[in-house]
Write a structure and sequence with these properties.
Pfam families: RNase_H (PF00075). The protein is of the alpha/beta class. The protein has ten helices and six strands, in the order H-H-H-H-H-H-E-E-E-E-H-E-H-H-E-H. Helix content is 45%, strand content 15%.
Amino acid sequence: MNWNTHLKAQSTRATQLYQNLRKIARKSWGVPLNHRRTFYKTVIERVLAHGAVDWCLELTVRIARKLSTIQRPFLLAISISGAYRTTSTAALQVILGIPPLHLQLQREARGTALFRLRLPLSTNVSDIDPSEIEEKATGWSAHPSEHLSPTQISKDDGGNINTGLRIYTDGSKTEKGVGAAFCVLTDINITHRWSTRLSLRNTVFQAEILALLKAVEHAVTLPTQQLTILVENQASINSAANPKSHNSNAWKIFKLLHRHPHIRVSWIKAHSGYIGNEEG
């Protein structure tokens, strides 16, 4: 399939849109220039992007040239200086800060294939395995009436907490790799450890939120008692305490904390000499 029919139809639609734009926007009158740019990005470009994941993943030179031809009249219509019709397309793209249409559509197509459809891309484009990509929670992550007890989350330094069971979490990223871990401390004795190595593509936040999730899951299996999870990353605490978070791990943490109000989460200052924090 060479997509000739589709490209011809897209060209026809683009011509109609351009003619409609010309009725309300000329060099010296009509729709303001900033509104023309918005119109191009939110309407025209969206129309042209229809089905791009099927025909823009691996672009040919012919398709790229055709898209450039389609884009050019719109660049002239929204150009700030009322550029001459002989101005090159590349110059218009630089002046307006609008990327070439074929690159824009290809970027969106690859993003859709990888992050939404979970389709692997060719190895010369990306070696990311779709199964490694973090999934986002969709819909209502929690009922509007659900919320955590005010005593469950603390942003004050919890390093001085020395009563009850304490679980210290940690996530880090160095040139050697990315890791997440937690340890359980009773008085001064470490009774349990957990750690895992993550991909180099993972961020510190992803490591921290994973360590917090595993710590909460472990806490749930323990007998009900006074228990505090000490976390050095405030971003992961904020995400876990947010009932509308779209992070799937944060959503799981929120649900577990909501069902087990005896589990407290407190921030702890990093690298301050606390035994559990250094061990974690």
